[in-house]
Specification:
single chain; 666 residues; Rossmann fold; GMP Synthetase, Chain A, domain 3; 3 domains; 6-stranded mixed beta sheet; binds adenosine-5'-triphosphate; nucleotide-binding
Amino acid sequence: MATSEGREVVAILDAGAQYGKLIDRCVRELKVETDLLPLSVSADEVRAGNYKAVIISGGPNSVYASDAPPFDSAIFELGLPVLGICYGFQLINKTFGGSVHAKEHRQDGQQHVWLDTTCALFKGLSEQELVLLTHGDSIDSPANGFSIVSRAGSIIAGLAHPERPIFAVQFHPEVELSVHGRDMFRNFLFGVAGCSGLYTMVDRELGAIQEIQDTLGDKKALVLVSGGVDSSVCAALLNKAVGHERVVALHIDNGFMRLDESVKVKVSLERLGLPLHVIDASEDFYNATTEIKRKDGTTYTTKRLKETTAPEEKRKIIGDTFMRVAEKVVSSFNLKPEDVFLAQGTLRPDLIESASKLASSNADAIKTHHNDTELVRLLREQGRVLEPLKDYHKDEVRELGRQLGLATDLVMRQPFPGPGLAIRVLCTEEPYITDDFDSTNMLLQALVGQTVEDPKIVQKAANAISGLGDIGAPLLHLSGYHATLLPIRSVGVQGDGRTYSYVAALTCEADEPDWSILFLLARVIPRVCHSVNRIVYAWGAPILGPVRQITTTHLTPPVLQQLKEADDVVNRLLLENNLIQTISQVPVVLAPVDPDASLDMPSTRRSVAIRTFITSDFMTGRPVVPGEELPLAVLRSMVSQIQKIEGVSRVMYDLTAKPPGTTEWE
Ligand SMILES: Nc1ncnc2c1ncn2[C@@H]1O[C@H](COP(=O)(O)OP(=O)(O)OP(=O)(O)O)[C@@H](O)[C@H]1O
């Protein structure tokens, strides 16, 4: 544990909550440094750390469980300001003699709470504030000497000690759903703990540069730059720290980058004086094959990537080819292992995830899947890995990147999968049509109020809608909507696994659909049509279906070009309208289907799906409702620009939550 001599550091004791990372980010955004420590840390260690305050996070356990994590209550006797959140709230209450009981039903959701605005924690806030409450335990009686400073209905939601700087809240001020949570942290850090916000980006940059210089001594740094934010910022920082003569920056263009991405990253780094070696390996990738092991232990050689359609084979070929190409490129630089350090853009959340026990340096496991060449392996084995961004969250890396002078569209780029656009082209040679294609198609039609002959199917649809209760009412007399199954499949989540199932398309006779109806249908359809896991809205005239043919699609340069252009339209508009951070991710997907093709003429056109996704944990999430986080005018502009791209049939909007759909389509 670092001592905080001359620094201003708050200790966050991690009780295991998935929101722990967010507390860390909130405090750091207020320019106060943090150390993440295990809940079991001793009072002596906390004293030695010279912290300004202690925050105890939420956690999945009950403080009364026999396996509740150990905690040294002498921490409360150090005289430090303490803020307990959720589990921390109950821990404080229990330690000081209050009682907690398990409630029959969990309480999860955003709700209004009453706040005592004379309490230092809530200074400047309103008496009623919207916060996120998630908990199964609840406090019956407050701890001795503590005052109740917040309530959620009849539930005690906040406690404070009148004389000692100890505060506890049941809700989660660290999440965005707690609208003024940030102000509570500000009150705690600056008003109660006396912090002054010394942890500025400029100071941090100087600290990181010093660390790079100390670690490297007179050695060189090798950095593989993907075109993403992290490795680009890492390269720019190294360049500033030790100069371009001592940084070897390599980028491999695999053919699946975004439009002009490789050129943009090269130009942006070169503007800072760092030459980026760009290796165009796209032909190697398109033509690559690999060996795949079957379950029975035998192996087979795949077709070439540009002839392959199976998603797993595509991924494997790309991963293996990357290693082969990287090996060749790295060795062509003749770097002596003893003269080099490997630099990578590992971030703080990566570290917290891999070692939430102690956010020490253990990120190797995370990045090993990529850039696994002999030299890289050797450097890792010898511990010659430099991770200058290990103290940064994503937003902070973006800020640092801007400060270092990287181009805005580069530092604002959204997360992008390793195999790039290759997994956003659904490849196929034949339609996906199973035995239940026609019956599922009819059920879909019945759900949107179209006339269907089969009374059993009509009944099934009616039952599903009535199962929604009151919220299903708008679907009872629906008219003007159409639904059709598409003969393609995309990946979705089912139970603990992933499965490939149909995509269903909704269309509407009116120019502008009622988005609330579409989202309602997207909820009900996968519940009744078990072989559908993704629902899209398709702009344009109603698709009367059934659609039974696909457009043969492989990973070839013209196909990729189509997707690159569509992806570029979406990303450009997101950037121009400041939506990159509001919406977590927006994969743009090329679907091998032209719903308007006539049955006897094979089509060469494909559809483009816009998949918006909002999530804080990346495990579950929801699409954006147009008109809310994504203004309708921006969306219309995306659609009209994509429609102009050559070979594009329909533009579609993915309406599926996760589960049942995943973020990506394959
Ligand atoms: N095309 C590429 N050329 C060079 N290096 C690459 C390439 N793709 C990946 N890498 C290297 O592998 C690392 C891990 O790849 P991954 O796609 O998981 O990136 P990441 O963790 O999202 O980081 P970034 O934001 O830099 O892309 C990258 O940080 C980079 O060092």
